[in-house]
Amino acid sequence: MIPRFCPVLGLPLYRNSGGRAQGPNSPTVDRLDPDKGYVKENVKVISARANAIKSNATPEELLRVAAYFQENQ
Questions:
Q1: Domain boundaries, the chain
Q2: What's the pLDDT score for residue 15?
Q3: Helix (H/G/I), strand (E/B), else coil: 47
Q4: For residue 45, what are the contacts with CB-CB under 8 A and spacing of at least 6?
Q5: Number of alpha carbons in the 13 Å side-chain half-sphere of residue 4
Q6: How far apart are CA 51 and CA 71, in angstroms?
Q7: What's the Cα-to-Cα distance from 35 to each of 21, 31, 40, 52, 73, rounded to whole Å?
Q8: Pick from 61, 36, 9: nearest CA to 28
Q9: Using CB atoms within 10 A of its CB, is residue 17 exposed (0-12), middle (13-18) or buried (19+)?
Q10: Strands of 1-73, DSSP E
Q11: What is the mean pLDDT of residues 52-63?
Q12: Distances in Å between the alpha carbon of 4 and those of 15, 26, 46?
C-alpha cells in the first residue's frame, strides 16, 4: 500500500510516468532493519528523497547532521 504522503518528510508521493527516472517524490520501499530483508513486517513506503537522506546512516549520525545544520544556518 502506497500512502499519499511520505511519512518522513510529508512530500506527496507519486510515480513518474513515461519511463522517466525516479524522482524525489517517488515511493520507495525502506527496510526498518536491514538484516531482516524485504518482508512485510520490516518495510515501509517512504519517498526516494527520505530514503536517499537516510541511505546507510545510523539514527545517531542523522541526529548529528541535523543538529549541525540547525546550529550553522
A1: 1-73
A2: 83
A3: strand
A4: 1, 2, 3, 13, 27, 28, 29, 30
A5: 0
A6: 24
A7: 28, 9, 14, 19, 36
A8: 9
A9: exposed
A10: 27-31, 43-47
A11: 91
A12: 11, 11, 10
pLDDT value at 17 more than 90: no
Average pLDDT over residues 28-49: 93
Q: How many CB atoms lie within 10 A of CB 33?
A: 10
Q: Is 24 exposed, middle or buried (0-12, 13-18, 19+ CB in 10 A)?
A: middle
3-state SS assignment for residue 42 = helix
Mean pLDDT of the chain: 91
Number of H helices, E strands in the chain: 2, 2
Cα(17)–Cα(7) distance, integer angstroms: 22
